[in-house]
Please model this.
Amino acid sequence: MCGYSDAVDERMDDDERDQVLDAVGAAFARLRRRTALVDVDPPVTRKDMSRNQVINIVDEAAGEITVGGVAEQLAVDPSVASRLVTECINEGYIVRKASQRDGRRTVLELSEQGTRLRDRFRSQHRQAFVKITHDWPEAKRLTFARLLIEYADASVGLTNPNKPTPQPRSQGCSVPS
Model:
């Protein structure tokens, strides 16, 4: 397991650096699988995993978002995205509306119920984060949180340079430096 340091360890040789960087992929896979298993209130359900992704994509969209845009963001076939979006619509979390730019297009927006579900997901994520990092010093926890947010924001810029870094429309994220 990799130790924590707030500075680059200049004594680390190239092989050690490669080992740390090579371990990132497996760490992301574990993080995705295991975080959902952390005991939070209310508990995470199977459907919450896909709903969370769809709701965040709609919430963070820079401008209007369509089912095709959701498919692009999820890197799935449009029929898969359509099914996921339809489930969210049927549950009352997302509403379809006519585009303000082109009335022939249908765009997606969060409903009030969808906003409440998004907030519940954020609460569950925070609970899981706190439980997972409960024995970390606060400075380490906050540094990791800042770096994780920075990493996520950089991934948006890298994978979609034409769109600004996502900022949730309804609830901004402000992490003190």
About this structure: The chain is about 55% helix and 5% strand.
